[in-house]
Amino acid sequence: MVRGSIWAVVLAALSVASAQTLAQEFNLVIRNHKFEPQEIRVPAGKRVSIYVSNEDGTPEEFESPALKVEKVIPGKSKGLVRIGPLAPGRYEFFGDFHADTAKGTVIAE
Amino acid sequence: MFGALIIVFREVIEAGLIIGIVLAATRGVTGRGRWVATGVLAGTLGAGIVALFAEAIANAFEGSGQELFNASVLGAAVVMLMWHATWMSRHGREIAVEMAAVGAAVTAGRRPMTALCVVVGLAVLREGAEVVLFLYGILAGGASGSSLFVGGMLGLAAGAAFTALTYYGLVSIPTRHIFAVTTVLIALLAAGMAAQAVQYLDSAGVINVLGSQLWDSSPWLPQDGIIGRILRALIGYTDRPTELQLITYLATLAAMAALTWLAAPPRAAHARTV
What Å distances lie between residue A99 and A93, A104, B164, B186, B250, CA to CA? Predict the structure, then answer.
């Protein structure tokens, strides 16, 4: 575990360095266990950052096997999801904790 | 209630597969039950703490804290599995001989259980934190506490039954093969964890290379289906792997094989123990 945390610190330092290769940014809101907007269009072939702001009081998990993302966003907080580069196409995502209502699509073009 | 049952079951089987393999791999070791129980307890406690600080963790390192945390947990588990594999290849043969001679029940195996205890703890920590957050969400969302509790308990019981099934399935393998089987399972487990870890690093923005997807087998075997999930926990199955994930997977398998081979005692020593 000590080894793991040292690793994490080193990696974090690297991540600050690599953050310079800036990705395009998009915003998503979770409200009443739904994503708004439900569709976002992003450029294909590029790294993209999506800021997911959870306005509900309960945690949500932004999940998408297609986008290879699984990220918990606690209630009343914001999470950063990094995706891409994507081939052109449609990529479904959902909120794993409220999978029946929280659904959305990323369209890469 | 049903939602709680499903999600708890789902997470418990993922940790349960790992516990089942660890129990099978340590058959005959005295006090292993206590070690594994310690791992489960520590992991559960850790899961509660992680869930409590979920927001602080998520906001650390410019919003990449959660990914870096997950990658670190997985990385630490891989290191522990490598340590175990190295130790086993040095001493496993003697143990197998001893077990065959004396019978599993009376073998007084002295083996360092620390590594596997940590692996169990980390598995429970990872899956448990998600369960805690999910259940908290339902509770806060107004579902009745008692139905949530019943669902969660049923999910836990079903998951525990699955773990028992894994264990008894593995220990029904004849004693002389069980070390070979668990060695391979542990190597695959480590490779899968390493491949998952690099994807977290990619999500954290630490790694920006070899991110192209190699194939998409989700129409045939989706990783979020029940079989896909089991394969994911067991051998690290991913339906849409990146180049880096496949390379990491193969490199970890190669490293496990190399460690096992390098740590093995010289042939002459074998001859003496046999």
Answer: 10, 10, 30, 33, 34
Place of tokens 């525990």: B160
Using one digit for the tens of pLDDT, what is the confidence trace for B53-65? Answer: 988 888 888 888 9
Predicted confidence (pLDDT) at residue B112 exceeds the cutoff of 60 = yes
ipTM, two decimals, is 0.77
Report helix, strand and coil shares of chain B as percent, to nearest 5: 80, 0, 20
Q: What percent of chain B has pLDDT over 70?
A: 88
Q: At a CB cut-off of 8 Å and minimum separation 6, what does B141 contact?
A: A58
Model confidence, pTM: 0.83
Pair B232, B191: CB distance under 8 Å: no
pLDDT tens digits, residue range B229-270? 889 988 999 999 999 999 999 999 999 999 988 887 765 444
Residue B205's alpha-carbon distances to A36, A83, B9, in angstroms, are: 24, 9, 32
CB A70 within 8 A of CB A59: no
Domains of chain B, residue spans: 2-265
Query: Which residues of A fall within a CB distance of 8 Å from B130?
Result: 61, 72
Cβ-Cβ contacts under 8 Å between A and B: the total is: 114
Q: What is the pLDDT of residue B107?
A: 44
Q: Are strands A103-108 and A89-95 parallel, antiparallel or unpaired?
A: antiparallel
Q: How far apart are CA B132 and CA B44, in angstroms?
A: 10
Q: State which of A19-23, A43-47, B135-139 shows the largest mean pLDDT.
A: A43-47
CA torsion, ordered B135, B136, B140, B142, to nearest 10 deg: 20
pLDDT, residue B49, reads: 94
Does the beta carbon of A44 lie under 8 angstroms from any beta carbon of chain B?
no
The domain limits of chain A are 22-108
**Percentage with pLDDT > 90 across chain A:** 56
Nearest Cα of chain B lies from the Cα of A21 at a distance, in angstroms, of 9
Residue A27 backbone dihedrals phi, psi, to 5 degrees: -125, 145
User: Which superfamily does A22-108 belong to?
Assistant: Cupredoxins -  blue copper proteins (2.60.40.420)
